[in-house]
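Subject: design request, 156 residues
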């Protein structure tokens, strides 16, 4: 009869162990699912300093990642006004034609992707390159783009 008495603690122990294993399994699952979203974060804008000289930018190429935002900081170290217009080659040609037709006395048209910088001054232009491809930063003061005042931007 003494055997019957010993069985109860043994069964209770197995039940307690099974409950403990189940509890551990649940904790591990919820912990791993919480780490899945942790890798996604906002990408910070990159600042690129560029000097405007007579008649060129001090750098001629730039490579950016698709979706990257560049904060351009232009400093005009030359003697004449310069500007920067961002767009693909077709947009550059179209913009250059518009600027030439307006003449030297006209004001630069105010556009989102353009900034005019007077001699000794500086200007900023923030631009997000949303599509892969080739773009340009061109100066469209009369004759400047034609003289090669541009930066080739590769978006990869
Ligand atoms: Cu220029």
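Subject: RE: design request

Done. Sequence follows.
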């Amino acid at each position: 009869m003494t055997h019957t008495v010993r069985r109860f603690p043994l069964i209770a122990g197995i039940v307690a162990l099974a409950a403990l294993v189940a509890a551990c399994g649940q904790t591990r699952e919820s912990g791993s699912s919480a780490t899945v979203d942790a890798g996604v974060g906002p990408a910070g804008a990159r600042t690129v300093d560029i000097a405007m000289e007579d008649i060129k930018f001090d750098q001629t190429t730039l490579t950016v990642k698709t979706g990257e935002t560049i904060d351009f900081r232009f400093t005009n170290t030359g003697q004449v006004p310069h500007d920067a217009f961002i767009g693909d080659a077709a947009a550059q040609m179209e913009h250059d034609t518009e600027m030439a037709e307006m003449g030297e006395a006209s004001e630069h048209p105010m556009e989102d992707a353009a900034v005019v910088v007077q001699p000794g001054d500086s200007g900023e232009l923030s631009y997000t390159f949303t599509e892969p491809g080739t773009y340009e930063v061109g100066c469209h003061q009369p004759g400047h783009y034609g003289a090669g005042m541009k930066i080739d931007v590769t978006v990869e």
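Residues 105 and 142 are 10 Å apart (CA to CA).
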